[in-house]
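Supplementary Methods, section 5.1.

A reviewer requested that the exact input to the structure prediction be made available. We therefore reproduce it here, unchanged from the version used in the analyses.
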Amino acid sequence: MKVKVLTSQELEKEFLHKIVNRWKQTESKIFNAVQKIITDVRNEGDSALIRYTREFDDANFGHSKLKVSNEDVQKAYSKLRKREIEALKRAAESITRFHGKQIEKEWFFETSDGVIVGQTTRSLSSVGVYAPGGKATYPSSVLMCTIPAKVAGVERVAVCSPPSLSGDVHPAIFVAADIGGATEIYRVGGAQAIAALAYGTETIPKVDKIIGPGNVYVTATKLLVRWDVAIDLPAGPTEIVIIADETADPLIIASDLLAQAEHDANALAILLTTSKDLALKVEKEVKSLLKSTARRENAQSCIEKNSFIIVVKDLDEAVYYANQFAPEHLEILTKKPRRIFGKIRNAGAIFLGRYSPVAFGDYAAGIDHVLPTGGFARTFSGLSVRDFVKTVSFLECSEEGCLNLKEVAVTLAKLEGLDGHVKSISMREGKIK
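The structure derived from this sequence is encoded token-by-token as follows.
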């Protein structure tokens, strides 16, 4: 296995365009593949869900298995160790506290005498949460999606997760959904799950918004259905970029790169360093650690295809490339991380210093790990309570306020030739005593 160690000049020449435009390189073929699934689910409902579940998940599946019962959820608790349930509950507490700080309170003020303007928030009525599954289980993602929804006040939270070969979902998904406040759970995944949440089937009612991470097929489906249902953000295969200077520990860097590489063969793992000596040490550590990595096939494929160790001339150049890449996760392992932190514009989440691994953000710290990938961190934020509410502006005028606004509003309405607006305003003047 070869780890690519490059200079910034070699990066520019061969790989920069590919990394910066990583999402665009796969979108056309994936969009074509999922469009048929969307159409079939819209036309056939549950029958299409069952057919595609059998085809893609090899699950022995029937109509009665689609919706998870309350009894199934309670049985799931008995299948987990006590410390696993406690860990999920402790993580849920941290996530709840962090997202509780994001709640926007109603505000208002007087712009002129008698004119009060303000803004309040209202939660969405329903959301669909996609919980990735298959070869790995991610109950943490269920907590990260359901909890901010419930903190925001969403009444209906539906969770969809793909079944295994046995036709069931890992019990940790059920337990996490229950702890997170989900109101319903379904055994269905992939593009077909997104289509079901977007348009509804006999068993799965449609939702107002779909959230949650997934593979490139899930992400492509979310982008296609966004004209009919709101979505959160493009969250595909995981990514990490690390900025490091000569003070960084090569073993920590290698382990953090592999921690993301083990998720998915299509993950992205990049080190930007000012030290060639560190670069070579990290390369050696990656090769060594890979031998004992449990999900070695995924990790090795990622390292070979989508991993780069780039030697830059200085930290400013590292910052430049990091902002170009706009990664999901950015670690800063330098002597003074805060100095770099202030220069980063594009990243889903930033982790400062050697004791702040991405893995803490994934599980226990409380920050949300549903983050934009594929370069979308240039324009998207990570998941938050704000994704589950909408703001509503309001206006309240007294008689005095009505008179204060009249002249400006009538003048502008006449300028635009909207006589009805003029009359709407003027008639109120006559009602004022």
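Residues 82-100 form the longest helix (19 residues). These observations are discussed further in the main text.
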